[in-house]
Design a protein that fits this description.
Largest sheet of chain B: none
Oligomer: heterotrimer
Radius of gyration of chain B: 25 Å
Chains: A mainly alpha (215), B mainly alpha (248), C alpha+beta (248)
Number of strands of chain A: 0
Distance between the termini of chain B: 55 Å
Strand content of chain A: under 5%
Distance between the termini of chain A: 40 Å
Strand content of chain B: under 5%
Shape of chain A: globular
Number of strands of chain B: 0
Structural class of chain B: mainly alpha
Number of helices of chain B: 12
Helix content of chain A: 55-70%
Largest interface: A-B, 48 and 47 residues
Structural class of chain A: mainly alpha
Order of helices and strands of chain B: HHHHHHHHHHHH
Amino acid sequence: MGLLSKKDAALITDPLADNNPITIQVLGICSALAITAELKASIVMALSVMAVLAIGNVVISLMRNIIPSKIRIIVQLIVVAALVIIVDLVLKAFAYELSKTLSVFVGLIITNCIIMGRFEAFALANGPWRSFLDGIGNAAGYGLILIIVGFFRELLGSGTLLGFKVLGDPIEKTGLYAMGYENNGFMLLSPMALIVVGIIIWIQRSKNTSLIEEN
Amino acid sequence: MEHIELFFKSIFIDNMVFATFLGMCSYLAVSKKVSTAVGLGAAVIFVLAVTVPLNWLLDQYILKEGALVWLDAKYGVDGAETLDLSFLSFIMFIATIATMVQLVEIIVEKFSPSLYNSLGIFLPLIAVNCAILGGSLFMQSREIPSLGLALTYGVGSGIGWFLAILAIAAIREKIRYSSVPPALRGLGITFIITGLMAIGFMSFGGMLTGGDEKKEEAPKVEAKADKKDLLKKEDAKEIVAENTKINK
Amino acid sequence: MSKRTDSNVYTIVFAVVMVLVVGTLLATVFSLTKPTITTNQKIEKQQNILYAMGVNDNDETSANFVSTKVAQEEFSKYIKKQLVIEGDKVTENDKAYLIDVKKEQSKAKEGKTRRLALFIGEKDGKTFYVAPIRGKGLWDAIWGYVSMDKNMIVQGAYFDHKGETPGLGANIKQRFFMDDFIGEHLLDDKGNFAGITVAKGNNDPKNEDKIDNEVDAIAGATITGNGVSAMIKSDLKLYIPYFKTLKK
């Protein structure tokens, strides 16, 4: 750990487990539910949020001493929105194929409360380098949950992973399907994302009992 | 009639929380007690009812492609009717919402301190509630045709959100007396209950597919497809195979 | 430090500067990128039309357009005629592919005559009639191109969407869904226009029955599927008078 001090390293590792943005801080749930029917979409979303959150955190952190406190929420929202719109326009012009894949996520990124939450809770009070690390860490923790949920929903719901038919072909009845296995189409519906996240929380808190909430 | 239809549709079928999963963060975070849930829910209804019509005006007269035609007609600005500012809609909508929320906060604080005390702390939370921005964006993408309908839509979706947070808060108050596995207590069980409620709300979707399809007589085509034109499975497969071939 | 940033004057000045900076920045980026974006969109439309008539780079499983470099060349090679149908008038127009279906639809709503684009392509001695369609999915707009023969039997289809749920509604642009339409009849056995319904609980999952006016729906994407059925019905119906003239 030559590059990062212990305190800085904790900024990245904490949100992965004990201070996870989704399961503990309750941030960024909407997008976690909307796009996890497919593993690929989960990965793309996780990476996009990481980019926006890290850059946004640095920008807000640099501006933290000049933002008037009365209108700070508007300023924060505008910074995110402007950032995302610019990236979207540039992609549309120079990487059109990529932008078509990402355009679905643009709106979801702007409204993702994980971004506002970290601006408010961290970037406004810390320097750019630490804010950058915080952004990376929180986005990684968020992405981790997204990828776990996406993995199970795609595997159980459509029997594929990243589009590859890992369990055989359901129509031609090969692989597992030859033995009478059926896809659980229910896993593809968004309510199941809520239930999968609920189960992740259950497992996490059984392992780490200090996280259990008082009733 | 279309007002009533849109109203109930936005409450039940397109419920913000259960159908589109918007506004989840504050829904989960502020649903421990019924009284606070009512406060936040009321504030969401109010803000949606104000911002959706406001953003409708903004969209109609400034952002849409060709929306600036009035500039040309009134002030003779050339080429105004071809301007397309819709790339600005995200930022404009967000700015409107944040401004409105802050304005409402200031006004309520000034004129009704008691209301401010019960509502005030929720107002800043609302600016970051994605249900609010979602409402405006849906209004834009679904092309709601009039200001009145935009208002109906705003109020309807607000009530839908209110209903959802009220229901979950009531359930959470009761669940305190049940023996939930310790690790599931609080957030975990809330997630799972919301999932089950969402599955329940999916059945409202049947209201939409049930009877509203207008029977419209399609114009008759005299020319009937000949029997030999009817494609059978083999032919179809052939076409698929043909289309798969790379055409150079 | 915080004293200085709390004053009203500072807040207002900051807001004004912020709006100016962000506004200029966005406007600059937009006007710089606009020409490239427009070209990209033009090429995409050509690729879409070519895809629907089977000119594409499809491999075993995935849908691929002809490459952007050759799109324009291939378009002029395969598309023989571009027609604009306006009421009874049929004119040729080599910019027909740029007709904005959304605008034409809103024109029709206002009671004006809608311009319909139709592309006549030839490939391997067969004639394809390609028509654009547009409608609404769950979240936002969906659109596509359908190519037919003169009996309105589908020869190929391309669908796209703005923001459908990845893994669910977004699958309308996957091969398994689009290929299902190939060989489907738009007319019923009496020769009346029936469209193609994206049907749930279809007892024909391999889609062997091509004359039932039905294709199998995508699990979990009911509303998007209904949107596809609706846009096929409402938009392709308008071409019936033209296809009648072909029969004579």
